[in-house]
Amino acid sequence: WQTENGVLLPSLQSALPFLDLHGTPRLEFHQSVFDELREKLLERVSAIALEGKVEERYKKLEDLLEKSFSLVKMPSIQPVVMCVMKHLPKVPEKKLKLVMADKDLYKACAVEVKRQIWQDNQALFGDEVSPLLKQYILEKENILFSNDISVLHNFFSPSPKTRRQGEVVQKLTQMIGKNVKLYDMVLQFLRTLFLRTRNVHYCTLRAELLMSLHDLEISEICTVDPCHKFTWCLDACIREKFVDNKRARELQGFLDGVKKGQEQVLGDLSMILCDPFAINTLALSTIRHLQDLVGQDTLPRESPDLLLLLRMLSLGQGAWDMIDSQVFKEPKMEAELITKFLPMLMSFVVDDYTFNVDQKLPSEEKGPIPYPSTIPEAFTKFLQENRIACEIGLYYILHITKQRNKNAFLRLLPALVETFSDLALSDIFLHLLTGNLTLLGDEFALEEFCTSLFDGFFLTACSRKENVHRHVLRLLLHLHHKVAPAKLESLQKALEPTKQSGEAVKELYNQLTEKLELRKPSPAEVTETPSMELPLPTVPTPASR
User: Fold this and answer.
1) What share of the chain has pLDDT > 70, as a percent?
2) What is the CA radius of gyration of the chain?
3) Among the four residues 103, 235, 284, 445, which has the most C-beta atoms within 10 Å?
4) Best mean pLDDT range from 19-28, 270-279, 509-518
5) Measured distance CA(248)–CA(253) in Å, rounded
6) How confident is the model at residue 523, as a pLDDT?
7) Coiled-coil region(s) at which residues (predicted)?
8) What's the CA gap between 191 and 279, in Å, rounded?
9) In 84-195, where do the E strands start and end?
10) CA angle, 47 as apex, 8 and 36 as ends, to 5°?
């Protein structure tokens, strides 16, 4: 039996007893021969997939699959069967169903085979994608709530290319491959989740996924996505954190080029523009344009570049409503935004310039000119009722905070208490604000500054918005040593978590309490201090000798 079933090589028969002398079992010898043959077979399958005419090579692989598939559950043969299936562009339907029905086989097969299963099985594909999407949202939220508060390294610091290297984007890109049907399914998932949750991070993923496929030059998908060139151009703007004139013209060309009957593409474009990274770039560019206009004595309505930025901001901010209502047309821009609100912002810039010049002028009889402390009622009203005005207003407040302009910050701070759909309490704004406030660190020692910031703004929302509670604790963890002790004590009481507070708030509060305990001088030190000071006056000075 051994002779009949062994390796039939005449020269081997005399060599086998030599292995016996070394105590090597025949099983071990046959296993190593088997492994070697399997490796050769796998190499050969991969080679067949690349040689000869297309029909012939696939015919060979199909024949091989037919012969070997019955052994697919045998662990030693399984890799060969899987390799054959991987190289077949279309695995027979019957075989795919058998793989799908068996959990272990499904797990073991290559992503190329899974793609063929997924494209006709949306539910199964959804089960695979869902945990990745959850992970992606969690990663974004972890960055926003990170304990490292810095003005230099914030949520918007990583470049688009760096972000696309993230695990989730890479996995999704690999799962999609060149399959347009799967790409469409992922986009549908993202649209549905964005509608259900209003979470703008899904819009970021929509743009990152397309640009990741663009990086790999997967033309099969890029050429059929009508947003490809627009996203590519916007991606370059996000990289520079500014929309220059040349790119502004390109973006405008894409928006103006939406033909009648193709308006549905506006839904996708609005989702790309709703990406926080896009909004951030557009808002920063708007603030920069407004400053330039002040220097040029020009009104906002006379600047086509500024109007284009507002048009794109408006489209991005209206993404949810557009996808929800399925009415694909650009939102109408309110004239008052351009004729009243933006000139008002420019007047704030002028107030700063004039105040700074006044400070430098020699003061004669007149006393120092106070900084304007009131804000026009219309400004507060715009922030409450107009989404785009609110977004630009918030970015202007971030801008003055970054410039360490305490006067302007305290002047505009009351307008943040009530904003359009609580935009001033959103995680992205609070993340940026807390980062920028670190630049005003020394002001936290002043009672007036802390009262305005904490009592006038943060604490008004802490009880109803847990995220605000978290951001305030993050800020204090970073700046507690700058705050006056009495104020710190009252803040500690005000920020104490309630029974309803989440774990994250409790954890941050405990960290803060620990830090404050470490800062308190020990009782021994407190009693020793006076005794050290008492003898000092009696020490004779050189002059009195």
Assistant:
1) 93
2) 33
3) 235
4) 270-279
5) 9
6) 54
7) none
8) 18
9) none
10) 35
* Vertex 132: Cα angle to 126 and 134 (nearest 5): 95
Cα angle, residue 196 at apex, residues 193 and 200 outer, rounded to 5°: 60
- What's the rounded Cα separation, in Å, for the pair 380 and 414? 8
Q: Which of 168, 212, 207 is nearest to 187 (CA)?
A: 207
Cα distance from N-terminal residue to C-terminal residue, the chain:
119
Tell me which residue of 166, 283, 275, 191 sits closest to 230, measured CA to CA: 275
DSSP structure class, residue 439: G
Q: Environment class of residue 331 by beta-carbon count within 10 Å: exposed (0-12), middle (13-18) or buried (19+)?
A: middle
Residue 344: CB atoms within 10 Å:
15
Count H helices and E strands in the chain, helices first: 32, 0
Sign of CA dihedral 400, 403, 408, 413: positive
How many angstroms separate the most distant Cα atoms in the chain? 120
Instruction: Give me the count of residues in the chain.
Output: 545
- Classify burial at 162, counting beta carbons within 10 Å of its beta carbon; exposed 0-12, middle 13-18, buried 19 or more: exposed
- Cβ burial of 485 (10 Å; 0-12, 13-18, 19+) is exposed
State the DSSP string of 283-328: HHHHHHHHHHHHHHT--GGG-HHHHHHHHHHHHHHTHHHHHHHT--
Structure tokens at 535: 């003898």
Which residue has tokens 């997967």?
218
- Residue whose pair of structure tokens reads 């901010």 in the numeric block: 317
Find the range with the poorest average confidence among 98-112, 291-305, 440-454.
98-112
Q: Could you give the CA distance from residue 339 to residue 325 in angstroms, rounded to a whole number?
A: 29
Alpha-helical regions (H) of 361-415:
377-385, 387-402, 406-412
Tokens of 32: 């190593």
Q: What long-range pairs does 206-210 form, CB within 8 A, spacing at least 24?
A: 206/268, 206/271, 206/272, 206/275, 207/231, 207/234, 207/235, 207/272, 207/275, 207/277, 207/278, 208/160, 208/163, 208/164, 208/166, 208/169, 209/169, 209/172, 209/173, 209/176, 209/183
Is residue 534 very low, low, confident or very high in pLDDT (cuts 50, 70, 90)? very low
